[in-house]
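Co-fold these.
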Amino acid sequence: MRNKTIIVLTGAGISVESGLATFRDAGGLWCGHRIEDVATPEAFGRDPKRVHEFYNLRRAQLKDAAPNAAHLALAKLAARWQGRFFLITQNVDDLHERAQTLHPPAIGYQLFHMHGELNKARCQASEEIIDWRDDLTVATPCPCCGKPGSLRPHIVWFGEMPLHMEFFAKIFPECDLFMSIGTSGNVYPAAGFVREVRALSRSHTVELNLEPSLVNSLFAEKIYGPAGEIVPRYVERILAGEV
Ligand code: BV8
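Predicted complex below.
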């Protein structure tokens, strides 16, 4: 497998052991909100104050979270991998970045937030993306155009096109190992990536999750348990040339 191309897809489950809630383990409620009330463009148009408060809460929670053993194991692999290593996350937290500061990545590593980032805001007038780690409100003046209310969270909401999709279509054919970690297989297009990789490449596919996802049957290998335990073990197997 050495010098081959690895593609990893992560979801909310990889951040659970860092104390961040998933989307569906709370019985469909997400920090007390229904997804359609806080994570759609319509919700933002209808009640921007409520949506800002939802993301302000999660941005604040993120400050108290730290990367866990699963994030660190992937960072260690990315630091030592001689081939190309693409980490695609559905998560909007910055725990992969923070893990990578402890293990500076090798040249072939790229990280993609396909659903945006909590610590970024976007001007709705200019589309400019701005680092943003504090609260956002409807009165916050936009640094680029000065207009209050022009900033939105740089998050891909339901019904919006995820980021970097054209690039992903280019790398799927060269994949040799596709790892899906901590995702339920509920949300598309991410849940369909394993099907695309299988159709376009001869990649080995492995699902590492607490429990079988909705697309578990599409994976050649399945390993279940807490990410903080199963991901470091799997990374050691890759580095030992056993995968
Ligand atoms: C799109 C940012 C099309 C928000 C997110 C109507 C109109 C348009 C689209 C649709 C539609 N109806 C359906 C769709 C498609 C829709 C979709 O898939 N809906 C689902 C709910 C049916 N998708 C979209 O809308 C996407 N856009 O399709 O655009 C389009 C086409 C052309 C032109 C324009 C548009 C956009 C989807 C992105 C939405 N934004 N996030 C925010 O974060 O605030 S998605 C959100 O769900 C998160 O990113 C999250 O990561 C993602 C997926 O969830 P998971 O990560 O899998 O989390 P989940 O809780 O589900 O599962 C956690 C898993 O971890 C579980 O399996 C659990 O067992 C496991 N776990 C728990 N603990 C651990 C663990 N595993 C390991 N260790 C542990 N300790």
